[in-house]
Amino acid sequence: MSEFYGTTDEGEAIATIRRALELGIDFLDTADTYGSGANERLVGKAIRGRRDDVVLATKFGNIRNDDGSREIRGDAQYVRQACDASLERLGLDHVDLYYQHRVDVRVAIEETVGAMAELVTAGKVRHLGLSEASPETIRRAHAIHPISALQSEYSLWTRDPEDGPLTTCRELEIGFVAYSPLGRGFLTGQIQSPEDLEEGDFRRNNPRFQGQNFQRNLDLVAQVREIAGEMGRTPGQIALAWLLSRGEDIVPIPGTKRRRYLDENAEAVDVKLTEEELERLEQAFPKGAAAGERYPAMSSIDR
After folding, report:
1. 295 catalytically annotated
2. What is the DSSP letter of 258?
3. Which of 34, 98, 99, 261 is catalytic?
């Protein structure tokens, strides 16, 4: 709502968040890096007077320096500073779920989670989470303080979590939050050309949206579109229904800037895929089928 995906509209964004609450969607996800703090301020404004209706998650760790460079920080001092800054922007005295946005490989996870645990003791945070963490990191973190959720990219076209993290989460009874469940919008079938993306949209530089990768991925989505058409649903609803079928411990967080797409996404909970339909999706979009890396550089992912 505040960055990355083209132009922003605060009025529509706030209306979309409030519409989500009307629909019974009460889990909101943000981060201090989204819009360099702007999204936390937006979310804080949208939920003012309705704090008790919301389970609010935010994240720390992705740093933007004044010279334009970026880094990841997980040292204890920064954890404390980042939490206080997020609470101030949100206008809250606590967040329900606090994630380390990316693992800082220069700092022992024990130090990072130890500092996060202090925030729980202080009442500033209720539960702890990690994002894009490997099974080993998850285990080490969980030994310091219970980890409540792992957030990683998971969808029909990104099934990496099935290679370890998801199994580890289930063993330790950690919830799994799937970000980009619609493949950054690709799985909706609405994007037919890179030119459909606005100038400044970060997806223009994403490997999966470029060159031959784009056409190969478009061919995959065409098969999802065909299945969706037969069911009288949209491709996005089928993609979300597929994720929901993977287990009750998986919570997808589809992002949208507009109410009309929010309503469409919400209706996915009513889509129940049969074993035959799931098998067709597996054949149409098998694991590893998507062309291209998830990001231009994967160095920030704890693999």
Report:
1. no
2. S
3. 34
